[in-house]
Hints:
- The chain has one domain (36-204): Glutaredoxin.
- Helix content is 42%, strand content 11%.
- It has helices at 4-19, 24-31, 52-60, 85-98, 112-123, 134-139, 178-188, 193-204, and strands at 74-78, 101-104, 129-132, 147-151, 169-173.
- The protein has a 5-stranded mixed beta sheet with strand order 3-2-1-4-5, sandwiched between helices.
- β1, α4 (85-98) and β2 form a beta-alpha-beta unit.
- The protein is globular, with a radius of gyration of 22 Å.
- Residues 14-53 and 58-69 have low confidence and may be disordered.
Amino acid sequence: MPTTEEIEKAQQQARDAMGRLPDIGSIRQQYTGMGMPKVEEIPKPAAAAPDIASIAEKYRDLGNAAAPHSAQPDLMVFVSFSMPKEALIRTAEQAERAGATLVFRGLKGDSMAKMGEEVQKILGGRNVSVAIHPPAFQQFSVTRVPAVVMARAEASNVLDNGCSKPETFVKVSGDVSLDYALDYIERRSPAWAAAARYFRSKIVNGIN
């Protein structure tokens, strides 16, 4: 028979284990779609990809201090499942080559599981970063998709209306491919031409 001391020790271990269990409220919030979706809950590609968590963090705290300067701007393609599947697949293919991030406004069917399934159908195993980030649509004045956006770190300093300053980003909207949008930026926006040329070369020449 166990001694009284052994019984008390076992009971204490059980109480400690119960204390380490997550709060049921946090579990409910994570899996029933309540609250803001967490980037880290999106299915991750098998290979290393640009860190979407860091990009999302840069643009999440609107009005905060600017994010650290980087050599190249962030390249994002704002998309929706309302787009034709062929266009989404083409965009994912070019986003992988360019190192661009696909940005969605919200969850498919208000379900993280459904969203993950649909994203995987589009990616088809490609190494592409994906973000669900509603505020970014307002921040970069995206009213229709697809929209290609290149943004400098300074874009994290937004105006009172929640939009980034116009000089901190460049945008091309319309049913065009990513490489065409980058070519258009290179030809029409001298301040962004070098960055657009760099990203487009990765698509056209397969440079990583």
